[in-house]
């Protein structure tokens, strides 16, 4: 099976005509429909990944000469994702992270992957544990299965030193996951919560995080279901002479921070279609 992945490239690179892109599709359009885009085929065990990206150096290849750079990796799953598709998406995204962005210089230190966050479409943080997530169909047991499979696979890829986390988990959802994570599986270390909700966190969530040593970190990402505009994605894939696709399989976001100066030096989205 061939998997097609579209990349914005590093939107903070010196030759980019924009800073942080106002949207993922705007970044894809600027990078891929310009004259500087290129296509690379990455062979893998279960088929090939066709990667559409900027012709300039990839984000991790640009940064790998500096050991002071830390990466935050966030994997987005679409709404109503099935258990099978979520597990496959996590595996493909993690594999691409390690293999398609490997350093061309064997002696150069790779950036440190500080954290890996899993964000499920249809799941938005609420301090009301009784709220129903109509577009989130995975059971607590299935979420735990995705967690176990994904984090265990990450360890086999050499990413075991990262902190693993989830996004937008309420007290009950986080408690369900924590209680199901086995002792041999990487623990839940982070709950990524939208910055607009961070000012009024429920006491139950704060207490749960303290008890289990879980960091409650703010983010400014759009919800997974609103991350990629379907109409614009269909237009971009059509203009690239691909089969027009208005739905994505997963999105991998890479954010690079220079530790010493606490300076954002990299921002990239990879969209699997």
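Q: What amino acid sequence fits the structure above?
A:
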């Amino acid at each position: 099976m061939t998997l097609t992945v579209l990349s914005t490239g590093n939107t903070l690179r010196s030759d980019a005509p924009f800073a942080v892109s106002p949207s993922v599709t705007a970044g894809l359009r600027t990078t891929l429909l310009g004259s500087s885009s290129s296509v690379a085929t990455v062979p893998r065990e279960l088929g090939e990944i066709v990667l559409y990206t900027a012709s300039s150096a990839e984000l991790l290849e640009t940064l790998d000469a500096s050991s002071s750079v830390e990466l935050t990796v966030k994997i987005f799953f679409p709404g109503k994702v099935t258990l099978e598709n979520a597990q496959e998406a996590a595996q493909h995204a993690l594999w691409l992270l390690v293999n398609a962005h490997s350093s061309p210089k064997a002696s150069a230190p790779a950036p440190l992957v500080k954290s890996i966050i899993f964000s499920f479409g249809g799941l938005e943080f609420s301090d009301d544990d009784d709220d129903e997530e109509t577009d989130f169909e995975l059971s607590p047991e299935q979420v735990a299965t995705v967690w176990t499979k994904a984090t265990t696979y990450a360890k086999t890829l050499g990413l075991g030193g990262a902190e693993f986390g989830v996004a937008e988990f309420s007290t009950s959802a986080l408690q369900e996951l924590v209680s199901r994570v086995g002792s041999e599986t990487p623990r839940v270390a982070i709950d990524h919560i939208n910055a607009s909700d961070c000012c009024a966190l429920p006491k139950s969530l704060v207490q749960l995080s303290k008890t289990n040593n879980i960091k409650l970190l703010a983010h400014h990402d759009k919800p997974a279901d609103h991350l990629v505009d379907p109409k614009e994605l269909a237009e971009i894939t059509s203009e690239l002479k691909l089969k027009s696709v208005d739905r994505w399989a997963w999105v991998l976001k890479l954010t690079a921070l220079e530790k010493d100066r606490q300076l954002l030096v990299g921002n990239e989205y990879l969209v699997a279609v």
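Q: And what stands out in the fold?
A: Residues 2-272 form one domain.
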